[in-house]
Amino acid sequence: MTQRTLVLLKPDAVRRGLVGQILGRFEAKGLSLVELELRTINGEQADAHYAEHLDRDFYPPLRTFITSGPLVAVVVEGEEAVPVVRTLIGPTDGRQAPAGTIRGDYSLSNRENLVHASDSPESADREIALWFPAA
Predict the structure, then answer these.
(1) CATH code for the domain of 37
(2) Strand partners, 92
(3) Domain containing residue 55
């Protein structure tokens, strides 16, 4: 089943020059990049994206981080794109992510973990509508 999902290459991925390597992993897996934009977001946009986390203790530092510099927003499409992308990026905490995953290979942090990816088809629909309303 063909799906679309949202991927954000966070400011640490952009700052470290990993955008091409990360996007290449999705393409090598057979996924398509159907929308892509480099942008910087403000606090209101971060709050809309992370709406379910606004009251969580970890959110204020995450908000500061995600708004700290440019990021790359991407709509990725392919067979079972949501679970495939989640598998490629690995668990949230890069210190615990297995080698061979994006976070396992490039991240040593729980917060600065390079990538966000939608966690369900419903989240993907909501997030894509926020980031790419015309898509």
Answers:
(1) 3.30.70.141
(2) none
(3) 2-131
